[in-house]
Amino acid sequence: MKEQLISLLDSLDSDGVIAFQTATTEDSLYQAKVGLLGKKGKLTDILKNLGQTSAEDRPQIGAKANLVRDHLEQVYNQSLVQLRDQAIHARLRSETIDVTLPGFQSVAGHRHPISQMMSELKKIFREIGFDLAEGPEIETDYYNFEALNIPPAHPARDMQDTFYLGGLDSSPLLLRTHTSPVQIRVMENKKPPIAIASPGVVYRRDSDVSHTPMFHQIEGLLVDKGINLTHLKGTIELFLRKIFGHKTPVRFRPSYFPFTEPSAEVDIGCVFCHGAGGSCRLCKGTGWIEILGCGLVDPEVFRFVKIDSEVYSGFAFGVGIERLTMLKYGINDLRLFFENSVQFLKQF
Amino acid sequence: MKVSVRWIKELAPKLLGTPQALADRLTRSGIEVEGIADFGAKLDAKIITVLVTDVVRHPEADRLSICTVQVKSEKIQVVCGAPNVKAGKKFVLAQIGAVLPNGLTIAQTQLRGVTSNGMLCSQSELGLGEGSGGLLELDDETPLNKSVARLFGDTILEVAIPPNRGDLLSHVGIARELSFLSGIAWSSFKSPLIKGFATTKAGPKVKIHNKKLVTRYMARVVDEVTIGSSPLAVRLRLESVGFRAINHVVDATNYVMCETGHPLHAFDERDINGGILTIDAVKSATQFATLDGVARDLLPGDLVICDASGPVALAGIMGGKNSEVKSDTLTLVVEAAVFSADQIRKTSRRLALHTESSHRFEREVSVESLPQALARVISLIVTWGAGKASHALFDSSPALKSKNKSIILREVRLQALTGLALGSTELKKILTTLGLVPKKVVGGWKCSVPAYRKDLTREIDLIEEVVRLTGFDKIPSVLPKLGYGVPAESNLSRLEDRLISFFVDHGFFETIHYSFGSPEVHAKAGFVNKGVLLENPLSADLSELRPSLLPALLSAYIKNKGALLWPAFIENRTLFNEDRKESRSIAGLFGTRLEKSGWQSATPIDFYFGKGLLEQLFNIFKIPVLFKKGEASTTWHPGQVALIYVGDILLGTYGALHPRLLSEHDIKDSVWYFEINGALFADLATQASTQFVPFGTYPAIERDIALVVDRTCSYDQIQQAIEEFSPALLVGTHLFDVYTGEHVPHDKKSIAIRLKYQDSQKTLTDEEVSRVHASLLQNLCQKLGASLRE
Questions:
Q1: What is the interface pTM, i.e. ipTM, of the complex?
Q2: Given an 8 Å threshold on Cβ–Cβ distance, is A343 in contact with B505?
């Protein structure tokens, strides 16, 4: 009996190994395990006959049975790992895609370059502690011209051809030709110290290769006791170097504006040829490019806003956003800004 | 203004330096030289003055002549095609090997079998202006065998004169300024004059009626006039500074204007009806033909010179056709005057008639140098043999306010405003250089201003002059101390970066259009007479300030649609309404995505796509909005438009555009558009504050319901019904299906909602939820006439 049982256990072991190793799915493997090692499995069947063996044989048969069970459990686990490996590999194979196909085309928007430059300039002014002030685009003659020391017959009005809206009263309505009216509006309502920057759109009745009837400016105004040309120079240099880099050469040339005196035009070292000059088309070989106008607030302007020019002084400066943007990105045609072609816009 | 360097150096012989150096000096002092052009100075040295000794017709060609040209001791043969070649006259020869300004190199050529050893040149071939066509005929006095470059060559500066510097609108003015800037003494200009005109005959009869607008009026008669052409040097000089040579008289007035800055005018005396010139303002509207032949509408107030029958000149702007100098003019009345700058400007602007004369009068000409200018022009005419001056002078100064201007410059003030610490000696030197004759007074200098410097009236003007001469580079750079608190800024200005970036990040292109457009285009988009018309637009296409951004965004869509996967545009700009009020609008427009944009399918674009985007925006900025069904209009699709409200304030509108509006723009696809009131948005976003609410940690229970309601019932109504009942434990609703079709009656729809119940204090039991849920359902069914779908 003992031999018979041992031989049964041996063949169970070898059958089991084959069954486990040939199972193709996790499920059939499990079924095979249940059939051999489960409560109602073959091993249980074999051990039912244990009672018919002698007491001294039983431990030996028992030990053999345990050996077979352990061995088969081990084979089972190996097969299970193998089957799981195969399954995951099969899944990975089926899920393999062509990673070189183009990705899902998400739409890319673009901010207008003028808007980007404006935002950058506003940031600079906030950093140096200026308020940001805005004003209406439809202005009166008084704010746009008269209070800025440009009386009706002044030849300086030629410098700024104006769009008029008609108007019944003594101060006709017009589209502001510069952001300077904001200075007047602020100084009328606030006592010095005043430090403002006013960004915005302005209009001049002019349209050719280098002029558009609408463009953008930002203007700075600082009024306090003891402000003079040294502060104007310091501030402008800081401002321009924040935009064009800290080594940018800056030069001041005397100029004329009705609302500032003394007045100056400011040049920066050519951003294209870096002062090499020669045949540079941007600076026409001079090594310098004109960038903004500035000066000390004219006492006449202070008189209009009832600020005592013997007590307070101040400086103002204005810069064209389009020009800065063209220089920054190397744009060669001003009109592109307002044509709104995506071929242009998508580059920024 | 064009400035001849040769002329300047004649007026200020001590002035040294190349044209470029002089230009730099001017530019650095605030008088910008915008261009430097050659006028014959760079002509090849092989281009010389010659005498043509003989001319015979070419045997083979009627139009060609064979000329014998004397070059030094040699005679050479040149074939020439110009009709004005004459034996015994002097011309310009480009010898063999010479290079003309247009790059042509002169070589020996055969013209119909005859050898030509050079080329006789015209004025334009030499780059010396237009001339009268034909060969440049030289005056008999011209020296022979001289380089043309040496004799006539010049360099022309294009100078931008600041509007306040009328004193620089002449060669004398520029020469004087350059002398100051170069530290060279300038003695006031004395032009070469014929001394002592005989004044045996009576002067011209002039009556000045309007004494306010005439500062000074001078006139002199020139008789025995023979009109011819002025000397070559004068003609070339006029051409070099942009004038056309016309005749003796006109050239003389132009020449003196360029030299002294005084506009002058000559009348044909025959045409002065009644023999008396009357200066007055026009009393009633009238027409008047100016020299250029254009009939001008004159209005009361315009200053004119009249004879017995009416105007003969528009004072200070242009002479009259009726009294112009003609080829047979025998007697001239030459006028030199100073008129009211304001009135000249007013008339000139209104008539859009801007002349060399009005340009100078508007910028104030000097009264003091007027006699000089008149004497100079008479001298030239007489010297050129064009007439005789034997009449007395008329001179009257009705509106002349002669005052010796003096201004005190305080040294403390100068330093306070410029930061320049100039020593007394240094300052005195600068003021003296400027011709200001400084006299020391306590704390400063008393300066007397030369009459021609109309722009110097205040201390600050002198300070500017000192800075101009010292140079900005002498001024140190100092940063002002700013400590004025938190910079103020409008809410929109502060927010707009984030706002625009939101749309840009979602694929929108930001555009910037002109604020004005065509009224027709505005009308086509549904805005008839809603904007503001400009009085003087550049063109009809740019004549109305926009009432909406829709027309502009539609044009961006039409322009770019084909170039984009998804056409979507955003603009943040000012709108203008009929009352000329401004508002800021943030408007966006988008179309459908290209169907086959890639190899994968994309999210479909419909009303809810845009709504979701806007909801996300309002969420980010914490603005609680409600979308309400909008009214039908010509702009919007009547069934797909929503008004965006915050409480009862309208914040914006969003919807699909009306198919009819689109088809009028030849757009076949659907297009969606939204506009948001920018300032309101920014104010609401700024006010929005976040308060922390403790959240429940006890588990929530969810129940799904499917309500069958009328198709016309809006989700808004269902939400309201739930909200009104507002059961205590309900913490959230989530719509997850809207269904019409099988199993639902055709006039109904099924709305599936997930309801979430939660108690912040304890774990809810099923029974508790069921109780609340059942009463909610009952309430909803009653209110909405709904039934539950099984």
A1: 0.82
A2: no
